[in-house]
Amino acid sequence: MSRFTDTAWQDTSVLRQRIIDLPFNRELMAGTLSQERFQGYMIQDALYLGQYSRTLAIASARSPDPEAMARFARAAEEALVVERALHGGFFQRFGIDPATAGSAEPSPTCAAYTNFLLATAQIGTYGELVAAILPCFWIYWEVGHHIAARPAPDNPFQAWIDTYADKAFEDAVEAMIAITDRAAAATTDTDRARMLNAFRQSTRYEWMFWDSAYRQETWPVAIG
User: Fold this and answer.
1) Closest by alpha carbon to 192, among 125, 133, 139?
2) 107: domain range?
3) Which of 68, 80, 124, 177 has the fewest C-beta atoms under 10 angstroms from its C-beta?
4) Mean of the pLDDT values across residues 204-222?
5) Is there a domain that residue 223 lies in?
6) In angstroms, rounded to a whole number, what is the distance separating the alpha carbons of residues 222 and 219?
7) d(Cα 224, Cα 214) in Å, to the nearest integer?
8) For the chain, how many structural domains are there in total?
9) What's the CA gap between 83 and 49, in Å, rounded?
């Protein structure tokens, strides 16, 4: 039987190529992405990471084996500490006011994605949860490597690129893939189908997140 993650990766190949081809990622690779768009992306990504960390912490608590429990716990901490530290550097470099970032609300896409993850963490199976978590790791690694292989001179976004093309991040991705395959191997065909749907849905949200950042998405109606 083929690995679950091989099936999921192949199943989403067309959509993943569309992610790489998004204007946001093409301009990020060229170093021509506007500061305003990158500012908005970083603010929304910081909001996303806070809720993603909660999802990882729940996965740690639900993990059936100590290795997965420890890996998810470390990932939850890193989502808050390591990546937010990178954001802090970009906030300063790109003129993002911390007070403005602190008062920002999630965009419709950010809210939908994080609510999907948290709902899956609460009411989905463990297999669904790990499958929903995996695309954020794996797709960022793929995008980072794709961009790193086509370096633009003096790219202002090089620190972002280096983070996701780094060997340490690759090791984390491989660990998450292994955890997901163990979960799939230990469950039923019915749950594996649900896992695939969760993987697909998170992959859709990955496309939507970058697309919404480029469009500088806001809520269509104001409150009050």
Assistant:
1) 125
2) 4-30+38-215
3) 80
4) 96
5) no
6) 7
7) 27
8) 1
9) 8
Side chain identity at residue 194, one-letter code: R
CATH number of the domain that residue 167 is part of: 1.20.910.10
DSSP state of 151: P
Tell whether 195 is covered by a domain: yes
Range list of H helices, the chain? 4-11, 13-20, 23-30, 35-62, 66-80, 82-93, 98-103, 108-123, 126-148, 158-165, 167-185, 189-215
Specify if 139 maps to a domain.
Answer: yes
* Separation of alpha carbons 115 and 178, rounded Å: 25
Residue bearing tokens 């230990």: 186
- At 124-176, the pLDDT tens digits run 999 999 999 999 999 999 999 999 999 899 999 988 888 888 888 889 999 99
Amino acid letter for position 82:
V
DSSP letter, residue 65:
S
In a domain, 100, yes or no: yes
Chain Cα centroid distance, residue 23: 18
Alpha-carbon span 179 to 131, nearest angstrom = 9
Question: Would the pTM of this model clear 0.70, i.e. be above it?
Answer: yes
